[in-house]
C-alpha cells in the first residue's frame, strides 16, 4: 500500500511540475501592433474603354474621399481594343503603384487570363484591380469566386445574385410563375434562362418561356416583340423577367411598352429598361457603387499593402431597388410597405 | 438602554440594510429602464435617418451628395425639442450635415474612432453619455457593407435626469418612511414580546431592593427561572444579614 | 455543557420569536416599499412610453405619407401588417398600431391580436398628402409594461429577501446571546453561589438594560453586605485575641461567604457571541468579490514577464490562497503575543487597505499585489478569531465554537457572493471593492465595541509547527491517502470549480455577475442547510470513510454536469444544480474527513498530535492553491465547461480509489480481527 501511494505522490508531483513548466514558459500573447501611416503619394494608372465615365469617376472619388493622396494617370483606348498593348507597354515603363482596368476586355487584355506566367504581353508584376467586370470567374480572369488567387489581381463581384432578384419579386407580390421572353439565337440569353430556371425551382417558382420568332436572317425582328408578349400574357405569368439580351436592350422601349400593353409587370436587373423603358421594378448595382467597391479593394492594396492574391473578393450587398411608380399605378400593382421602405421611387 | 431597544436597534439595522439594497436595486432598474425608453425613442429617429441615407448610399451617392438629408435633419430637430443636435459625419469625422447645436463635449471623434475599430460589428449603435447629454452614433453602411459614415444624435439629459432625481427622492422618502415605521413597530413589538423577561427582571430588581414582597412565579422565561432560584438566594441573603447583624451585635457589645 | 443553568428552551423560543418578528417586519417593509416604488415608476414612465410610441407612429406615418405621395390610394396600401409588425418587434411596449381612415374606421392593423381594455389608444399622427389628412395612426401602449420589466429583477429581490433571512438568523442569534443569554449565564453562575449562601463575587456587566439593572441591584446588596463585613472584620481584628470562639467561627464563616474574590474563569471569559458579528462582517467583506474576481483579473490582464496568460489571471486567487496557507500557521504565534483582539484589529488593517487598493487597481500586477496584502489580513484575522473562540469557549465548548466560526463563514459566503454579484452588476467591480473596504471598517467598529479583551492570553500560541511535522504527516501512508485522494481533490474542486471556473464559465456564456452570484450562492445555502445535519448523521452512523468516499463520488459526478449540458437553455440553473450537489457532497465529506483526520492523529498521539493536524491542514491547501491554476490552464485548452468536467472526473477517480482502498482496508482489518 505504502509504495503505491508514494508512487502516486511522485506521479502527481511530476504532473504538476510539468504543468507549471508549461504555464510559465508559454508565450504571452503579443500586443496588437499598430503601423504608423505613411503620407506618401500613390500613382494609379486607369485604363478605360471610352474615357472616365460614372464608374471610373466613382472609383476615383472613393479613393480621394478616403483621404488617400493619389495621382491618377488616365488612359482610354477609345473603343479600340487594338490599343491595349500600347497601354501595357506604358504601364511597364511608368511602374505605377496600381493598375486599374475597366471592363472585361481591357482587364483580360492587360493582365491576361488566370494562369498567365511572366510575359511581355501582360502586366504581371504590378498590382491591378479590375473594374466593372460582370463575371470575372466566367471570363477566366480569376481562379476562385472568393479571391483571385492571382499574385497581382484583385476586384469585386458586382452581379446581382439571382436569389436576390427572386426574393425582391416575391416580396413585391406573390410570384408562382414568372415569364421570360427571349430570342433563342442569343446564347447568353439561353444560358441566363437556364440559370433562372434552376434558381426559380429552388423558390418553387415555375418559369414560363416565350421565344421570339426568328427573323428571316436568324435574329428576330422588332415586330416579333408584341405578338410574343401577347402570347405569354395568355399563359398568365405573375411577372416578367428580363434576361440579358442585346436585341431586347436595343429595342428596350418597344419591349417594355409591349409588356405594359399586355398588362404584365416587368422586372429587370439592369438599369436601362427601367430608366429608358417602362419596366416596373428593377434591382441593380448602381454604377457609383460598382466604382466604390473597386476603390475599396484599391484602398486596401495601397494603404495596407494587402496581397491581391488573397484579398477577399467583396460582393455588393445592397442594390438599388427602383420602382417605376407610373407603371405600377397604371398596372395597379401597388408596392407593399416593406418594399416601399427600401425602394427608390421613380415618378 | 432597555433590552427591547437594544434588540430593536439590530432588527432595524437588518431592515435598513435590506431596504437600502432593495431601493438601490429598484432605482438602478428604473434608471436603466428609463434610459432605455428615452434612448429607443431617439434611436427610432436615428434609424429612420439611416434608412433614408442608406437608400442613397446603395444608389452610389456619397453622403455629401444627398441634399435631402439636411432638410430631414432640420425637420426632426424642430419637431423634437429635446434633440440637441443631429449630424451626419463621414469616415474622416467631417461634418456633412448638421441640424441643431452640437454640444461642445459631443465625443464624436472618439466615438467615430471606436466605431471604426475592426473588432466592432459594423452595424452596432454606439451610445455616448456625459453629464449633460446622451449621444447615439449609428453607422451608415454603403452598398458593400462597409461603413461610410455615421448619423449622430445628441439629446438633452436634463429632462430625464430631473425625472430620475424625482423618482429617487420619492424612493428615498418611501424608504425612510418604511424605516421609521419599522423602527416604531420594532420597538413596540419587541417591548411587547420581551415583556415577560423585562418585567420579570424588573420585579427581581424590586425584590432585591426590598421594594416588593415575594411575588408568585410562573412560566419558563429566564427571569422566572432566575426568580425561582432567587427565592433561595433571597433567603440566603436574609440569613447572611442575620448572621452579620449577629456578629455586629456581638462586636458592639464588646 | 457545564452547568445547565438557564432554561434553554425558553431562550431558544425567545430567539426564534424575535427572528419571526424581524422577518415579518422585514417583509412588510420591503413589500411596502417595492409596491410604492412600482407605483411611482409606472406613473413616471407610462407617459414616456406613450411619447415614444408617438415617435414610432410618426416614423411609420412618414413612410405612409411617402406611399400616398407616390400616388397609392390609402385603401390600397399593401403589406401594412408585416411592415408595422417588423417595426414593433423592437418596441415590445407597443401592443398594436392601427391605420384608421378619416371616419375612424380601422383599415389595417399591425396584428390581429386584441388589445386589453385598459390600454390607452393614442391617435396623434395624421397621414395624408400635402396637408390633406387622409387618416390617422392609432397606437396602443401595453398598460403593465413597466411592471413586466421590473419582473426582470424578481430573482434579485428574492435574493435580497433570502440574504436578509439568513442575516436575521445570524444577527438575532448573536444579539440574543449577547444581551440575554450571556448576561443570564453570568447571573446564573452567581446565583449558584448565592443559593449556597456565598456572595464573594460581583456580577460583571452592569449595563443599563433590565438585566443589567438587576445585576446592579444585586451587586449593591452584595457590596453592602461585603462592606458591612469589611467593617466588621476591621473591628473584629482589633479584638481578635479576646474574641470568643463562637464569634471567631461566625467571622470565619462570614469571611468564606463574603470576602471579595477575583472572578472565577467562567464569568470572566468573553463570550463567543461577541466575536461573531465582526467576524461575519469580515468574511462578508472578503466574499463580496467572490462572484467576479476571476473575471476582474481577466479584464485587467496584461502580459507580465515570464508568466503565461493562464497563470497570470489565476494568480490573484492562487497566490492569495497560497499566502493564506503558509501564513496561517505563522500567525498562530502572533496570537500569543498580541492577544486576539489586537491581532484581529491588526488583521483588519491589511484587509481594509488591500480591498481599498484593489478598488483602485488598474492593472493585473497591482491586483496581484493587493490580493497578497489581503491574504496577510485574512490569515491574521482568522487566526485571531479562532484564538478568541478557543479561549472564550474553553475546552468544553470547542465544537460549538468551531460551528459558530464555520456558520459565520458560510453565511457570509452566501450573503457576500450574492450581494457582491448584484452590486458588481450595477456599481462595477471597482466600486464593489470599495463597499467591501467599508464593510471591513464596520467590522473593526463592531470589534471595538463588542470585543472586550480580557488581557492575558492564557492559551499562548499553542503548539509551534515544525518542519519535521510535515515529515511525520508525509511519511504516514494513512495521512498520504487522506491528503492525496480526499483532501486535495476536495479543496481543488472548491477553488478550481466553484470559485474560479464558475464565474468564468457563466461569464463566457453571457450571464451577468448578478446571476453568477446567485448561482454560487446555492453552494453556500446547501452548506448551511445540510452542513450540521450531515455531520451529525456521520457521527451517528460512525462510518466516516463511507461518507468521505460517497462525498467525493457525488462531488465528481456533480461537477461533470455542466459539461454535459453545455449550451442548453437555462444553463445557469443547471450549473446551480451542480453547485448544490457539490454542496451536498461537501457536507457529506468535509466533516468526515476531519473526523478521519482526528482518528489518524490519535494514532500519531503524543505531543505532536496537534502539530500533525496543523501540518495536514497546511498540506491540504496545496489543492486549493492548485485549483485556480489548474482550472485556468485546462480552460485554455478545453474551455471552462470541459475543464470543470475534467476536474469532476479527477475527483470521481479519487473517490473511487478512496472508496476501494477504504473497503479493502476494512476487509483487511476485519480479517485481522477474525
From TrEMBL, chain A:
Superkingdom of the organism of origin: Bacteria
What InterPro entries would the database entry show?
Answer: ABC_transpt-TYRBP-like
Q: Which Gene3D superfamilies match?
A: 3.40.50.2300
What is the protein named?
ABC transporter substrate binding protein
TrEMBL record, chain B:
Q: Record's superkingdom?
A: Bacteria
Residue stretches in coiled coil: 223-250
Q: Which UniProt keywords apply?
A: Coiled coil, Membrane, Transmembrane, Transmembrane helix
Q: Which residues cross the membrane?
A: 7-25, 174-194
Name this polypeptide is given: HAMP domain-containing protein
Source organism of the structure: Aquibaculum arenosum
